[in-house]
Every structure is written in structure tokens, then in C-alpha cells.
## 1
Amino acid sequence: MTQPHIISSFDRDLEAVQALLMRMGGLVESAILDAAEALEMRDEGLALKVRDGDKAIDALEQQIHSECARLLALRAPTASDLRIVLTVMRVAAALERCGDYAKNLAKRSLILAHMSPLGGTTGSVCRMAKTAVLRLKDSLDAFIGRDKVLAADIRDRDRDIDQMYNSLFRELLTHMLEDPRAISPAMHLHFIAKNIERVGDHATSVAEQVIFLVTGEVPEEERPKADATATTSRSTEE
Amino acid sequence: MNVMTVVERDVSETRSKMDARGVQVWYGDKHALKDVDVAILDRTVTAFIGPSGCGKSTFLRCLNRMNDTVASARVMGKMTMDGQDIYDPRVDPVQLRAKVGMVFQKPNPFPKSIYDNVAYGPKIHGLARTKAELDEIVETALKKAALWNEVKDRLAAPGTGLSGGQQQRLCIARAIATSPEVLLMDEPCSALDPIATAQVEELIDELRAHFTVVIVTHSMQQAARVSQRTAFFHLGNLVEYGETGQIFTNPRDPRTEAYITGRIG
Ligand SMILES: Nc1ncnc2c1ncn2[C@@H]1O[C@H](COP(=O)(O)OP(=O)(O)O)[C@@H](O)[C@H]1O
Ligand SMILES: [Mg+2]
């Protein structure tokens, strides 16, 4: 796969779409981190920057999509070349969703900036965001390095974010039970946390794409799952 | 916002090298080409595609007046290169063919040495005054044709002793030795195996840095791989002409769509 094609422009086309994808990944990572910082620091300027920056991410996804369509039509890629194009398209779609979550976080942070804080919850959200971004970054590194060991490791690390989400969920429930005025900010924070958890899920699916890219097979066995919030309400009643 | 474009397919060249306006060709009473308008862009690979017999080769031969040599052929319309009418009576077709070189389907080296195959054109056109100059022309042409490394130690060996792919690259070297501005290729890979084909395609991509290349191909995938502009011919008509990516992802004419998706032959 590392051997160059006889038609060198084929290599340059393949490299170009991957470079675009990495660019997009970089933008999405900073959007999430900036949005989390805007939330914690109540920095409305930064929140607005993230909100408006999503357009650039969407435009990159569009460009990747049309370049991949050209590649498929003009180069008729096969085997590992085909998997590169398919993977790039899927990862771009996942990154686009993550960009949307960052934008949503930024918007909610603008509302939360005018509400009283709920204990240390924004700090927990930020830690969660950092963890999710780290997984996303690792999964993109695994993509570029064609590193299936790292990819498998990311897939198994899914638990930490789920656990952070669960404990934040309980914390928010406690605030809401104690004071009905906390319901509004807690709901916003809960949606944010849920979206960050989804970023983690997207990082996992990127990692699975990397395994597909390297091995040609989609990993099958169930991933460990630690999201227990569907049953958490009962446990908090106890 | 698109800071980065996929450089390879960036068709920045917009200067027209050759222009055809209302070109018609008859062979006797057979109307082979009907009212073709085309602007061939400078330093760009333009591919002609279409079912067999649709007039691709006929149009290609109009570009260097090879149809003059076909007794039954009548060519009408206007054809220019850099704005100059190439059918003007004052234009010498032999001189024109030095500027608009041609490579054929079957590699056809002369039964001479590799060196002489390439040196032939420059010699008859008086392009070299000394042996050293001729040597340099031969070396440059063989390098541009991506053949130099394979033959530099056996320039005196017969050209016909090379492999098919090498012979075709030798013919390309021969065509570029007279410093043409345009290179016409009529199905240059149809006699070659896939590896030799890929090597010639890579060469075509390199050639567009120096030349305007027009290639007739029966392989749509080849057109997609090597060209920046594609023209689709059908029954003597130029149906659609545009940027290759557009033709292959979103053709405007239903006949183009039918052909490239394998629905008409
Ligand atoms: N020398 C010729 N004499 C008579 N008819 C010809 C001659 N060359 C081509 N034709 C006819 O003109 C039409 C276009 O031919 P051509 O340009 O060779 O098509 P293509 O290259 O697309 O296969 C065909 O119908 C062919 O039979
Ligand atoms: Mg033909």
C-alpha cells in the first residue's frame, strides 16, 4: 500500500483528500475544545467564534465529498485504494456531526453564561470534552498512521467517557431535585454532556473505520458499554 | 473557504491553443463530422471519447491536416492554432505536422536505431547544426518521453527490439523531438499491456507541462485518468465537451450519461 502508483497523480489525489480530512479534524478538535472553554470561562466571544466557525467545517466536508466522488468516478480505485476513499467519506461525515455538536455546545454556553453555575458541573463537562477530543485525535492519528493497534485501543477506551457522563448525569439530577431553578441550566448541561458522549462514539466509529481500512474487515464483537443512565433514575431514588 | 484544492485536477489553464469552428468532414457522400466547435486548451490533456465510428479520429486528423492525405475526404469550417488559420493555402502541411505531432495506435518505430528514430525529424527539419546539438535533442526527447534511463546504454540498438510499451514511448520521443506544441495521440495504449499503459498514461500527465495533448481513446477510464477536458462524440456530432470531472460525475447530456454508464455502444 505504501508503494507508489505508476500514475503518480493518483497518489497525489489520494493524499489530497486525506490532507483535507486532517484539516477538517483539526478544525473540529479546536471547535469542541474552544466551545468547552467558552462554557467554563463564560466567554461569549469565543462561543460566537465557534458557532460561526462551523460553516468552514461544513464546507470542508462538502469539498471532501465532491473530491471523493471525483476520485471514484475518475480513478475507479480498487482494494486498499477503494477503502481509503470509503473511509475518508465516512470519517468526514462523522467529523461533520462532531462539528455540529461543538456548535450546539457553543450556543448553549451563550445561554448558560446568563445563569447561575451548578457547582462544579461545567468543569466536569470540560474534562469530558477534553477526553472526547483526545480520543478523536487518537483515532485520526491511527487513521494517518494506519495503526490498527491504536485503533483497537481507542475502541476499548470507550468506557471512560460513558462513566464521566453517568456521574455527571447523577450530579445534575441531584441539583434538579434540590432546586427547581436548576432544572433549566441542568437540562442544557445534560444535552451538552450527551453530545460530548456522542463525540466519543464517533471517535470509536472512526477507530473502527481504521481497522476496516487496514484489515479490510469491519470489527465485529460488541464493544464494552458503560452508559447506565437508562437505569440511573432508579438508583438515585434509593 | 476552500483553502486547499486537489491540485492534480485543478484546470487553471484557460488559454485556447487550437480552435475549431463549424468543422464538417465528408468522405465521399458520407457525412462523418457535423458542425464541430471546440476550443482545445493550451497545456492540457483533452480526451476524445465515443463509440467506434463516431468521428474521433477524423476530428483528430483535422488538427494536423492528416485528412489532406485521404483522397475522398473534404474538410470544411475554420480551424486555427494560436489564432492562425491552419488551412490557409500559405501553410505548409509538413511544417504544420512538425508543430502538431502525432502518435498512432500501433507503435511504429522505423527499422533503424533508437537514436536514429528520434534524430530523424530534427535532421529533416534542420533543427541541429552539429552532432552535439543533435545528441542533445535526442537525449532531451528521450528524457521527456521517460525512456532515457532504459535506453541510454543502447542507443545504437534497433528501435524495433524494444518492448511494446517502450516502442510507444520511443514514438512519443520521436514526435516531441521536433519541438511540437501540440501532440495528437490516437488510441496510443490499445496495443499495450496494463503496466505499459500506466507508464504511458503517467508520461502523458508529465507531457502536459510542455505540450497541449489531445488523445483519442476507446477507454473511458483512460480518459478519466489522464485528461482534464473530455469531449464526447456520437454519430459525427460533438455532444458534450467539458471538464473531465464534470463529464464523469455529472454529464449534462443524456447521451453522454448513457455512454459513460455503459447504456449505449
Ligand atoms: N478514409 C475513410 N474513407 C471513408 N470513410 C471513412 C474513412 N475514415 C473514416 N471513415 C468513416 O467515418 C466515420 C468516422 O470514422 P473515425 O473518425 O475513424 O471514427 P472513430 O475514430 O471515432 O472510431 C466512420 O463511419 C468511418 O467508417
Ligand atoms: Mg479511431
Note: The mean pLDDT of chain A is 92.
## 2
Amino acid sequence: MTQITLSRAITAGLRKAMEDDPKVLIMGEDVGKLGGVFRVTDGLQKDFGEDRVIDTPLAESGIIGTAVGLAMRGYRPVCEIQFDGFVYPAYDQIVSQVAKLHFRSMGKLPMPMVIRIPFGGGIGAVEHHSESPEAQFAHTAGLKVVACSNPVDAYWMIQQSIKADDPIVFFEPKGRYWEKADLDESATPLPLFSSRVVAEGTDATLLAYGPKVKTCLEAAIAAADEGRSLEVIDLRTLSPLDLDPVYESVRKTGRAIVVHEAVVNLGMGSEIAARITEDCFHSLEAPVLRVGGFDTPYPASRVEEEYLPDLDRVLDAVDRSLAY
Amino acid sequence: MSSASADHPRDGLGPDLGKVFGPSHADGGPELVQLLTPEGELREHPDFSFDGSIEDVRGFYRDLVLTRRVDTEATALQRQGELGIWAQMLGQEAAQIGSGRALLPQDMAFPTYREHGVAWCRGVDPLNLLGLFRGVDQGAWDPRDNNFGLYTIVIGAQTLHATGYAMGMQRDGVVGTGDPERDAAVIAYFGDGATSQGDVNEAFIFASVFNSPTVFFCQNNQWAISEPIERQSRIPLYQRALGFGFPGIRGDGNDVLACHAVTKAALERAREGSGPTFVEAYTYRMGAHTTTDDPTRYRLSDDLEHWKLKDPIARVEAYLKRGGHADDAFFADVQVESEGVAERLREGCRSMPDPHILDIFEQVYAEQTPELALQKQEYAAYLDSFEGAAQS
Ligand SMILES: Cc1ncc(C[n+]2csc(CCOP(=O)(O)OP(=O)(O)O)c2C)c(N)n1
């Protein structure tokens, strides 16, 4: 058992994946000598060389487009996008090429590629450094999308993503990079595309992923003081969604609240609410509620604390749900 | 030189790459336009000359010192927690003042996030620059007030905007009329790293085929965060221009006179309707990429020492002193003025009002949507519920 931060857990997972498979490559801006602006790839170029840990020219479309060619050649590129807001120059390659090659080749051409994106806010950054674009990728058929919320999951999920034969957009909660947990490297991980109940409760179900899982766990603790029992589910996978544990929970609690930093309008919560309604209609005591970012661009950092859904806004939604 | 030729053996398939020196060169290479040496001596150049007066040079000196003061003060404010982050301009003052002072009021400038010196030349209050870095706004100035665009963080995006703006000028009939009060041009600022972006290359192509009055001003400060220029190019950047169909020039980016002369020529060419020019200002990022960066992780202090000898301010000071063009009182005055600028920045920064969360709902659309208006109303009610609770 070692205490490890979330960012270091990803480093360890990447290192393991590179040791296990010589075809695994890391590419991105500043990932080599600097070890990435968040140091997630720290030390990897030194140990695996410049052919496997590639400081690329400053061009996101170039990073993903060349990763397609490398994947065709049998490599497993793990591409780092420096910040969420800088993925868009690569959007065309991701959506029109990466996502569709398997389909267009009638299954002959797998695209084993991981696109790592540090996402979310709360770090006091300037614009384009705090966004949550996950729904845009989950909306794209051909891509799989996952988000880790804690160091242990981060360690396993990055390795599982690299082993997968489909392209995976891997969201890392940058505001939680420095949070620590005990990591047991000999444990057996949960399958990648599975959600997990992280706190059991009976009055309402909170659904979250990435940075907001911790917020929901804190909300559950605060609610317990008031005699309310909240169940919390870490969704972990956003495409495909793993909703069976969610349905089971909602049938028990009758209430569901989806929490994310991304804007509510057509966010992950919209799809999840629709599916819960379809599957659990007769068990629902209240409409599925969504707590998320407002439908504005991410604001200047001095108001981000009021913009981001926090414990109070989650508890407010719990109140509203219970009031039905 | 010889090692570069070995790297690029001539194979008969293309130009003799052995003739060039790679993208960087200790002295900027033989084609570097330099009018003022690091020692402060004037130098002749066959194609370019500084056509301003001594008064102008003194003005440049003042600009250089005051903007460096703005920059160091902002860096200090970040250290004190008053700014979230700051992108230092240190070392790039001459590139920015030289080019910025070559602009006419009717010209338009599109900056990155580091163009504090250009902003100064355009008359933008330095305090306005701090909003973005303090986290109270995202720029918020009106680009039309000073013909200075918003700071752009997404690398390279603004080069296309600059080109489109220049295409607008063509359509408005303010290019090539021969009327110096009327003819206008656009300057796009970007870094060496940015030259790898698709957007920047697309901007070159649009500007070229439409012959738009765009000056592409690249500050090659040798680094894109931790990546050296060699990671973006194998030839000097200015030589790329030819492939796109317009001229490229490399100026000494630490020489304010050369930057002024070269940019002025490029702007004049654009205004008269002869199309785009690529100007590479060969310089060095003396500070960290931003205040969150630690350059000791990826570069040698030897380089820094080498570039210190080429300081953009020291050479102007040496020139003014040696020629007796400015007396002690002049230098003392600029010093005093710079302290005043710093103090004003300090006070202004600390007393900058925080934004209000409810205002963001009004900024999104020209015509407010009912949905967003409702969200604002609901959130205001939610916030009020806390106030009520706090009072009771
Ligand atoms: C599209 C995009 N990708 C990545 C980044 C992150 N980033 C910010 S500055 C920078 C390096 C820029 O280097 P350069 O263009 O040389 O300009 P400099 O900062 O040296 O002035 C990077 C990679 C960004 N801002 N935008």
C-alpha cells in the first residue's frame, strides 16, 4: 500500500502500461522533458526515451491526426491535451476520423488510442483552462468516454483504457490531481465500463463522475447530520453508460439527482435523467433533477466558486427532490 | 553550421537546406536585420534604416522602461497573490515597442496574451490587462477603443481573425488609396510555437491568396513553454513565408530600432496594397513561460546569460548616453515615472472590484434568451435564500 496523489497514480499507471507493452507511446505538448504542465508524465521520457514519449509540435490536430497513423501502424498512442479548452483544434480529427475509422472499415481498423484531457474548474485559472466538454465526446458514436474521480481508479482506469481496442477519451479531474489515497497495486480492479456505488443510502441517489464525486460524498455526510440518507454513485464511464446499478438504486430511493460541472443544457445529466425516467418511471417519487454549470461560458475565476455546483447546491436539490 | 549541413544532406530533391542554419542561431544568422548593436552602436543595413528622430529614440527608451516596470510589477503582484497568473514579457520589450510604435492609429492589432508592450503603444491602460490575470474578467476591453484586440489564449486563433479583419479593410476601400491618413493594415502577433498550428498556416494562405494587408509578427522567443524552437521548425521561421507566397524578414527582436524599421516597412507594404509580410522578431523569453512555470526544468542558465548581454533596454541607454542624446535628468525622470506607473498598477489592482456572478448571465448573448433569464432569476432567488438565513 502506498499513499499516492491522483496525478501520480496516473503517472504510475502510464508507467506500468509502457512497461507491459512496448507499443504504448505518449504524445503531447510539454509531456517529455517537462513531464507535462501537471507533471503527469514526469520521468517517463527519461526512462522510456524520446521515441516513446514524444514532445510534439504545438498543434492538437497534428497530435491526434498523427496518432491515427501510429495506431494504424500498430502503436497505442496515449495523447495528452494540455487543457480541456485546447482540444478543439483536434475536434475534427477526433470526431470525423478517430471515431469513425472502425465503422468505415467495417470493423477492420481498430483505433486503440487514449486521449487524456485534464478537465473541470476550481483551480483559479484563466479562460479555456476549466471547461467540461465530456458530453460533446459522449455524443459522438465511435468514441468511449470515461472519467476517474480518485487515485485508485485513476491508476487502474488509465491502464484499462490503454489496453482497450477502441478510442477512449479519458477525463482527469484536474482540481483533484493533488488528492491522496492508498493504492494497492495487487488488487483486482473493477471492469473499466462500470459504475460503482460509493456510499449507500435510502432517501435519494446522487450521480456524479470526476471532480463532483467527492462533492457528493461530502453532501452525503452533511445530509446524514440532518438524518437524511443519500446514496452516491460514481458513474466512471460516460459512454457507454453503466446504468443498471443506477436503476437499482433509484428503484430503492425513488429520487435521483445528477451532478456535474458541465452546463446542464444537453449535458450528461440530460441523457441520464431521460434513461432513468424510461426505466424507473413507476418508482420515481420526484423528477430527476440536474445540478450543473449554468448555460454560460465558464466565467472568470473570481466567480467560479459561485458558478460551480457545490455542496450547498447539491443539498438544495436534495431538498427540492424530497419536497415533491 | 557544418553540423547543420550534415543533418540536411543535399539530395537533389529540394533546396539546399545545408545553406540554412536550423531555426536558431547564436547571433540570429547572417540575415538578421540589426540597426543597433547590443553595445549600443548604430549599424547600417542595405535595406532598412531607422527614419525617426532622437526624440523618438528617447520615447522608445521611456516605453521600454515603463513597460518593463509594468511587467515586473505584475509579476510581483502575482507573487503576492493579487493575480492568479501572469505571462511575463521580460526580454521581448523591443520587439513589442518597436513594432507597436510603427502602427498608425487606423491600424489594428491582434495580440496573444503576452503583448503588454503593444497594448501600451496602443494606449490601453495597463490596469485593463490585469483583469484577465486576476480573474475578474476575460479581457473586457472594447477592441475598437484602441484598435487592439482581446488577448487570445488559444494558440494561433487570432492570426485568422487578423486576416479576416484585413480582408474587411480591403472591402472598405482603406487599402492602397495612397492617402496616408486613410490606408490601414493589420498586425497579428504570435509566438514561435504558434507557427505549428493549423490556424496560423491557414491564416498565411488566406492572407496570401487574398493579398490582405496583414503583417504576421512572430516573436520567436525560442521557447513554447518547455519546447525549444527546434521542435517547431528545421528552418528559420521567416523563410517559411516564401512557401506561402509572401516575403519574410528576420529582425533582431532585442533591437527596438530594427523592429521598428522592419515592421514599418511591412506595414507600409500592406497599406499600399502589396499584401502580407512575415516578420520574425528573433528574441528570447527571459522569464518563465508564466508565473506557474519553472524553466530550470528544461533549459540551461547559460542561454539566459548569453541573452542577458543582448538586453533590449541596455543598448538604447548606451546609445543615448554615448551620443550625449540624453542627460542624467532624463534617465532619472523616466525612473521616477516608472515608479509612479508601478504604484498606480499596484493600487489599481488591489482595488479592482470583484465581478458579480449574476452579471455573467447578461454577457452571453446580444439578445437575452428567456431560458437564461430564468436561470438568472432562479439563481438570484437561491442566493437570496442564504441571505435570509444569515439574517434570521
Ligand atoms: C490551442 C492551444 N494549445 C495549447 C495551449 C497551451 N499553451 C499555452 S502557451 C503555449 C506555448 C506557446 O508558445 P509560443 O507560441 O511560442 O508563444 P510564447 O508563449 O512563447 O509567447 C501552450 C502550449 C494553448 N494556449 N492553446
Note: Residues A 29, 58, 60, 82, 86, 89; B 114, 153-155, 191-194, 221, 223-225, 285, 289 surround thiamine diphosphate (CB under 6 Å).
